[in-house]
Amino acid sequence: VFDFGTPTTCQKLWKHIYGPRHIIEILEIPDLQKEIRLFFPPNVFRQANLDAFTKIVATIRNYIIQYNRSRPKQQGPLPSCLELYGGVGTIGLHLHDLTSNLLSSDENPFNIDCFMSSVKLLGKKSTRQDKIPV
């Protein structure tokens, strides 16, 4: 339960009152070795149809897997991932094992804690709130 407050009491907007602070969603990606837990409190965007979005993420993963296999090994590190309007990191976090680093950006300040909660569960280190070295 959250107290949304009123525009005149901005400090109270989205004040957590009782119960879980967020729901946790897990996309079923067959080739992903470690599941990614995505955290969604009521003040962030969540895809309405996660089943369809899972197929999009799986297609992106497949494309990057094919690209990585086609690259000469001496070409250097894996590609980087830049996720604009990344929200809680739904796409980028699901590419963490296929890319050398991830930079995710979004204007909603409530997304940072959600993103970092997922990063922490992955066991990744972060020196900045918007980047995880992988």
Explain what you see.
The protein is an alpha+beta fold and 134 residues long. The chain is 25% helix and 17% strand. It contains two helices and seven strands. The strands form three sheets. The chain has a three-stranded mixed beta sheet, with no helix packed on it. A two-stranded antiparallel sheet has the order 1-2. Strands 3-4 form a two-stranded antiparallel sheet. The longest helix is centred in the middle third of the chain and has 21 residues.
Comma- or semicolon-separated keywords:
about 130 residues; alpha+beta
How is the topology of this model organized?
Blueprint: E1 2-3, E2 15-16, E3 23-26, E4 37-40, H1 50-70, E5 80-83, E6 101-104, H2 111-122, E7 131-133
> What is the gyration radius calculated from CA atoms?
17 Å
Number of DSSP-assigned strands:
7
| Helical coverage, percent range | 10-25%
Unreliable spans are 127-134
SSE arrangement, N to C: EEEEHEEHE
Number of helices: 2
| Structural class estimated from helices and strands | alpha+beta
Estimate the global geometry from the Cα principal axes. Answer: elongated
Strand content: 15-25%
Q: Strands across the major sheet, in which order?
A: 5-6-7
| Measured distance between first and last alpha carbons | 35 Å
Main beta sheet, described?
A: 3 strands, mixed
Question: Mean of residue pLDDT?
Answer: 83
